Amino acid sequence: MILLRRLLGDVLRRQRQRQGRTLREVSAAARVSLGYLSEVERGQKEASSELLSAICDALDVRMSEVMREVSDELSLAELASMAALSDDDLLRPVLEPVQLPAPGERMSTITPKAAAVDVVAA
Question: pTM higher than 0.90 for the full model?
Answer without folding.
Answer: no
